[in-house]
């Protein structure tokens, strides 16, 4: 059975994330693993005491959440850095999705370096940021391109809506040679882009259907201009439950990076945000 990992810092934001993690775990027929880390710089005796106290608090948090009923929930509390704990546990448990609550920084400029930023940048599996009250996912907006992480976002978003609706947005900015060719060349370019995207969507959904996953209803919008502005305009029109996108980016020495779009949406999320690698 697949596993969903939810990291808690015992805050109100984590309560909201726990509710969402439970809903997603039930939808994906998965177990839920709730992870908490305590400060490893404390003396060992203090660490043991803090771990016991934290486990009791996590148990209380789970008991307060009615969505945990009829769900297999495990708890992991250990000393160490929370980011390292999340990433290591996700690899050891072969988790399908990591769920996190919204970061506490009120200033977006302080987002880089938070647990959310680090996990979203380094995790090998999709990361879901919970920023809104937990109603069932029925509609999402997807930033779609031809990258592997864009396809991963499509797959996970389709699983989350479970037969609901996805509105895919593709930024179709023609190259200079096409723009110089006039409107006919631009229209032809857009037709080719749409056909390729529709084939990609069809292929991914057929694969999911073979796995027993209900296909969503997918609309496709091609837009020109800035990707963030186009995506936020679609969010304004669709009022989705979440946005899904690929993380994008690696440095020259192989270190994972967050693309500017993912970084901006995680800093100031208009709704829940799914980032896939």
TrEMBL record:
CDD domains: USP-like (cd00293). Keywords: ATP-binding, Nucleotide-binding. Signal peptide: none annotated. InterPro entries: Rossmann-like_a/b/a_fold (IPR014729), Universal_stress_UspA (IPR006015), UspA (IPR006016). Pfam families: Usp. Residues 3-130, 141-277 form the UspA domain. Gene3D superfamilies: HUPs (3.40.50.620). It comes from the Bacteria. One of its GO terms (molecular function) is ATP binding. The keyword ATP-binding applies. Belongs to the universal stress protein A family. PANTHER family: STRESS RESPONSE PROTEIN NHAX (PTHR46268), UNIVERSAL STRESS PROTEIN RV2623 (PTHR46268:SF27). This is Nucleotide-binding universal stress protein, UspA family. It comes from Halopseudomonas yangmingensis.
